Amino acid sequence: MAHVTLGLLTVTSKHEHHYLTETAKMSKLYDIECVRFTPGAIDPKTLRIDGERFCTKSEEWQTDNFSIPDYIYDRCFYNRKAKKEKPIVDWLKNYPKTTFLGYGLPDKWTLYQSLKSDSTIGCYLPATTLVQSPNQILAHLRSHSNCLIKPRNGSRGVGILAIQLASNTIKVTYHKGRDKKTKNFHSIKEFNIWIEKLIAQNDYLLQPLLQLNDKQSFPFDIRLFMQKNGNGQWELVEKGIRKGYKGSFLSNLYSGGETINYSEWCLSLSNKQKTLLEDNLQTIVSQLPHILENRFQRLFEIGIDIGYAQDESVWILDINSKPGRKTILTTSPHLSNRLYEAPLAYCHYLSQQSLLKEPN
């Protein structure tokens, strides 16, 4: 029987099934046992879990009942339906017998407030304010003619709005999955009523609408995928490009984006442009993970979304502690085994570290 158990935690039982199964297939390399469960499957009285255990012989998941595992890899994403699961996961993070591979990051506003004062990273962050009233948005529109508002808690581009003021019309553009929608308001009053209802439901952040399109007017961003290796050291696993469709302002895959190999995309840059961009990316990669862990809690992986504007300025658009792998797996399929193995290698490292700390 393996002496270390790694729990793969998801909000629904089959979420990321392929990825987590491929990871579990490699568990015998590290003498780690993999179990899979949802937060709601924990019995609060017995602290036993109805979940699944991975059988390395049959390479299948089998229904089982087990105690809370030693280590947990948290892949929970909280939409409105899953909000009740979050307090259970927060409780698990404080459970003394369990160690999480990574403890996640706070919301976008808390993150911005913490990072904006950093002398290295602060200059890469778009100016951000918390939306308090429609007047705040209108004042920005009158000064700059456009802006972006995004939910304080959000992912995959859901809820992000691009707002533009032209003559006497305010145009709001947003995505519903792959479909781009627009609303036109022909009076300030009409816009105020609509936006007031929206900001009453959620906290929103206000940012400039950066010009993040390529020469053909397609929006794009650069995904930096970072993980800790089997020695507990941060590594840049790969860079990939996500490109949206013409007329869109989002490039993430959920909103209809496609992936492009980073090296191929770089062919469109001059040597000078590439050198300057790489220099900026190297600064972010070498500094950001350590700053985040110093200010918050331990992390295992992060996805950093980088905007590269038409004036060649570089922006950190988003930092995600539960990054997807589609961009990297699509553009660099040769890295698939490395991605599947990484949680096990880092779990093994943490278990070895804990053995070293035990008194003789």
UniProtKB/TrEMBL annotation:
Top-level division of the source organism's lineage: Bacteria
Protein name: Glutathione synthase/RimK-type ligase-like ATP-grasp enzyme
InterPro entries referenced in this protein's UniProt entry, alphabetically: YheC/D
Lineage: Bacteria, Bacillati, Bacillota, Bacilli, Bacillales
Family annotation (Pfam families): ATPgrasp_YheCD
